[in-house]
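Exercise: predict the fold of this chain.
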Amino acid sequence: MELLDLLIPVAHAQSAAPSQPGLLAATWPLLVMLPLFYFLMIRPQMRRSKEAREMLGKLAKGDEVVSSGGLAGRITAIGENYLTVEIADKVEVKFQKAAVTTVLPKGTLKNL
């Protein structure tokens, strides 16, 4: 017997096979992550897309809007998928309804 064997107990090997985790122990991370993903990622995205659809559905002639490209102007005509927006005196551009990101309060663009 060596000196180290007196100071540190010798570990005896066990003959039993390592135990497998139970079904609940293996699936609890998934059961926790699914509701977490729903409330932190999926639900807020669905709410934002619903608000955007409602905003696009309420667009009317004379509304002042800002597009995703940064153009700001007043709506002069509304089609099925496109808007005609006056961005300066006698300057009108067409862009898709989906490009509208913000509806401005009335009177924001006074010099138009």
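Check your answer against the key: The chain has two helices and five strands.
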